[in-house]
Design a protein that fits this description.
mainly alpha; 8 helices; about 0% strand; rod-shaped
């Protein structure tokens, strides 16, 4: 017999015993009840009642168990909700941090770009000057002299310079006249266009050498003198 059923049976017997004692105690003038009459009366109880009690207790335990499970489930759901909320907050914080870092990086990039643009705007523009080179020969000397003469506004042509150079020095930049009147006077004519030193000094073109034997300096000084005296070197056809 299960423990609970046993306890219930004992309780039943105790109750019946108490009832039997009550029946034996009667007033003095009452009829005495004999032991035999009590013994012939049997206590009636069945196992069905015990089973009903057992079922009731079992149902109560089952209900209690369900309540405990419901409470535990509710606690777990609450804990899961808290964990989910914390996870969502952490995710949001991480996204916010990443967005802030990206914004900071973009701002730094814009600042660097602006600084580079500012430096570029403030940087002086250096124009590359292409210096034309000329060959170191009579043709090159005449062409370079013509370029300088053009900048300085000195008239003259390639033909006018060439014909006078050939006549005066045969194209020798070191030529010197040591027999004419100038030579006799101690100021001989020198260079491609046979210029005397005082004339070279007076008509020297800025930007050229001060060396009278320098081909470019000699040609431009002589062309400058001829332009002043004859209008242009092209008008000179003899000693000048």
């Amino acid at each position: 017999m299960p423990k609970n059923t046993h306890k219930i049976a004992i309780a039943g017997v105790a109750t019946l015993g108490a009832a039997a004692i009550a029946f034996t105690v009667v007033p003095a003038d009452g009829q005495k009840t004999t032991t035999d009459s009590l013994s012939s009366s049997r206590v009636a109880y069945s196992s069905g009642q015990v089973r009903d009690v057992k079922a009731s207790v079992t149902d109560q335990l089952a209900v209690s168990s369900l309540k405990v499970e419901a409470i535990e489930a509710k606690k777990k759901a609450a804990a899961d909700a808290v964990a989910a909320k914390k996870k969502a907050a952490a995710t949001a914080a991480a996204k916010k941090k990443a967005a802030a870092a990206a914004a900071k990086k973009a701002a730094a990039a814009r600042k660097a770009k602006a600084a580079a643009a500012s430096r570029s705007a403030n940087r002086p523009v250096v124009k590359q000057v292409v210096v034309k080179s000329y060959p170191n020969n009579l043709d090159g000397w005449i062409r370079e002299s013509l370029a300088i003469m053009k900048k300085k506004g000195i008239p003259g042509s390639y033909h006018g310079l060439h014909k006078n150079i050939i006549r005066e020095s045969s194209g020798n930049p070191k030529a010197i006249n040591d027999w004419d009147i100038n030579a006799i006077n101690g100021i001989p004519s020198k260079g491609l266009l046979q210029v005397i030193p005082p004339t070279f000094k007076a008509y020297h073109v800025p930007g050229t050498s001060w060396n009278i034997y320098d081909p470019i300096a000699n040609i431009t000084a002589a062309a400058n003198y001829a332009a002043d005296r004859y209008g242009t070197i092209d008008n000179v056809n003899s000693a000048y």
